[in-house]
């Protein structure tokens, strides 16, 4: 039985699922050892730091990831940054292959006038704040009564829901104390969500939409003029079961517009293409949108009508974008590692020995957990299908890695450390009658994980 040593860079769902599938697929043919390298002190990636904390379905995903790690067959090296703490050359010396699963954490650009004004933000920055991302700001100015969210995907609805939600309704979640205080002191009363296409051409899921209407003390405002503009296309869209559910939810809200009386509102604007962030003295004062209309080919086209919606902040939720990695090919236009079914390729389309990719850094920021699993399986097939593409490690001592990181003074965390931090967060929550309170500061996360006290060493 041949040996296969694997380094996985990125300990989110993509990296953990790829590790799990690889171990199972190689059983009986290869003796597999896998090391997960994660830039943050804790695993789970966007499940921990990219999904709104009031989503109950997170627990199921986290439990599945925990089950994989609890097998004890995967080593974790947290708080280890690829490119500085450990390099591609280091990994080539110690492993047969490297799988990159670093995801996409940053906002895609939106090229419209005024987008860089004061009060204009990327949605990812706001998500990082309310999810307690270690490198995010600890404060967020929620000092405007009316705000805009650009986008019609799940992240846009997450951002809109959190902006509109009353702080006490977030307490059952794991939000940190600073986030609770920020939401408690918010001035936001109206959140406007803009999409350039029609209500049945949205990108969000029925679950996200339904949750939007279940927020206590918040009404959903829709405009009758946005509906029934292309009846034939709408009927065709309803053949998709998800779109049919979305149509029913929106239909229910259309019938409730006369009885709206909640203190906060989420306004859904369709057929509204954001064209400019209007500014006054350098900061956001309105969002200018161009009204669009459906076209025969199923798209939309601009009309001559523009509208200015007064808002004090703008959040763009138009997608995520991947980041380049040291010494690894990168597609600057798409924000991904170029690859052939998961096998990394260079600028000439030739496969690069020993390098593979999975998850959003492989395919772009689209698809949910199901797509991530199938994505990982495709990459694993490429790995096991061609052993000639593997490196031959020159360092065969698995314990030597601990010495290397110690020599470089990397305060890395491991699986036991994550379990310690996990238990600590649950204890913090228990003291306040909550399930968990997330630790935010990186040094505190490391100290708890490493069972160290006092100042960071």
Helix content: 25-40%
Number of helical segments?
Answer: 15
Number of DSSP strand runs:
18
The CATH homology group name of the largest domain: FAD/NAD(P)-binding domain
CATH topology value of the largest domain: FAD/NAD(P)-binding domain
The largest beta-sheet arranges its strands as: 3-2-1-4-18-17-16
- Average pLDDT: 93
The number of distinct structural domains comes to 2
**Which value, in Å, is the CA radius of gyration?**
24 Å
The CATH architecture term of the largest domain is 3-Layer(bba) Sandwich
Distance between the termini: 43 Å
Instruction: Specify the overall morphology.
Output: globular
Strand content is 15-25%
CATH class of the largest domain: Alpha Beta
Structure classification: alpha/beta
Low-confidence stretches: none
How can the largest sheet be summarized? 7 strands, mixed
Can you walk me through this structure?
- The protein has 457 residues and is α/β, with parallel strands linked by helices.
- The protein has 2 domains: 2-105 and 322-412, Rossmann fold (3-Layer(aba) Sandwich), CATH 3.40.50; 107-320, FAD/NAD(P)-binding domain, CATH 3.50.50.
- The chain has helices spanning 13-25, 45-49, 57-69, 88-94, 123-130, 154-164, 177-184, 206-212, 231-237, 241-254, 360-363, 369-385, 400-407, 415-430, 442-449, and strands at 2-9, 30-38, 74-78, 97-100, 106-107, 120-122, 146-150, 190-194, 218-222, 264-269, 272-280, 283-294, 300-310, 313-316, 320-321, 339-340, 343-345, 351-357.
- A 7-stranded mixed β-sheet has the order 3-2-1-4-18-17-16, with helices on both faces.
- It is globular, with a radius of gyration of 24 Å.
- The mean pLDDT is 93.
């Amino acid at each position: 039985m041949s040996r296969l040593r694997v380094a996985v860079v990125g300990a989110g769902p993509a990296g953990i699922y790829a590790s799990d599938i690889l171990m199972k697929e190689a059983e009986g043919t290869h003796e597999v050892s896998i090391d997960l390298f994660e830039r943050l002190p804790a695993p789970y990636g966007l499940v921990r730091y990219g999904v709104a904390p009031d989503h109950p379905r997170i627990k199921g995903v986290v439990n599945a990831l925990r089950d994989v790690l609890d097998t004890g067959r995967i080593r974790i090296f947290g708080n280890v940054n690829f490119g500085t703490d450990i390099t591609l050359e280091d990994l080539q010396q110690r492993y047969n292959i490297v799988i990159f699963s670093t995801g996409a954490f940053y906002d895609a650009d939106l090229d419209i006038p005024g987008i860089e004004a004061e009060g204009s933000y990327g949605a990812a920055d706001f998500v990082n704040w309310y999810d307690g991302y270690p490198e995010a700001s600890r404060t967020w100015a929620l000092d405007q009564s009316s705000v805009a969210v650009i986008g019609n995907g799940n992240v846009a609805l997450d951002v809109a829901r959190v902006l509109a939600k009353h702080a006490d309704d977030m307490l059952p979640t794991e939000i940190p104390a600073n986030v609770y205080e920020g939401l408690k002191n918010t001035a936001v009363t109206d959140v406007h969500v803009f999409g350039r296409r029609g209500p049945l051409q949205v990108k969000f899921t029925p679950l996200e939409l339904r949750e939007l209407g279940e927020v206590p003390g918040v009404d959903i405002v829709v405009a009758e003029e946005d509906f029934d503009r292309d009846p034939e296309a709408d009927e065709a869209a309803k053949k998709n079961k998800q779109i049919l559910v979305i149509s029913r939810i929106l239909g229910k809200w259309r019938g409730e517009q006369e009885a709206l009386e909640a203190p906060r509102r989420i306004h859904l604007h369709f057929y509204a293409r954001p064209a400019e962030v209007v500014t006054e003295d350098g900061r956001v004062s309105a969002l200018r949108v161009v009204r669009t209309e459906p076209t025969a080919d199923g798209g939309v086209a601009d009309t001559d009508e523009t509208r200015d919606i007064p808002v004090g902040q703008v959040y763009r939720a138009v997608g995520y974008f991947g980041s380049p990695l040291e010494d690894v090919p990168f597609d600057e236009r798409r924000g991904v590692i170029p690859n052939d079914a998961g096998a990394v390729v260079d600028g000439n389309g030739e496969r690069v020995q020993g390098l593979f990719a999975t998850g959003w850094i492989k395919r772009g920021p689209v698809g949910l957990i199901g797509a991530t699993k199938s994505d990982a399986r495709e990459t694993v097939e490429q790995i096991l299908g061609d052993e000639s593409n593997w490196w031959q490690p020159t360092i065969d001592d698995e314990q030597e890695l601990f010495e290397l990181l110690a020599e470089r003074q990397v305060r890395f965390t491991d699986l036991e450390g994550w379990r310690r931090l996990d238990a600590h967060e649950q204890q913090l929550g228990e003291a306040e009658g909550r399930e968990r309170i997330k630790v935010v500061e990186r040094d505190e996360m490391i100290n708890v994980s490493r069972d160290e006290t006092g100042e960071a060493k």
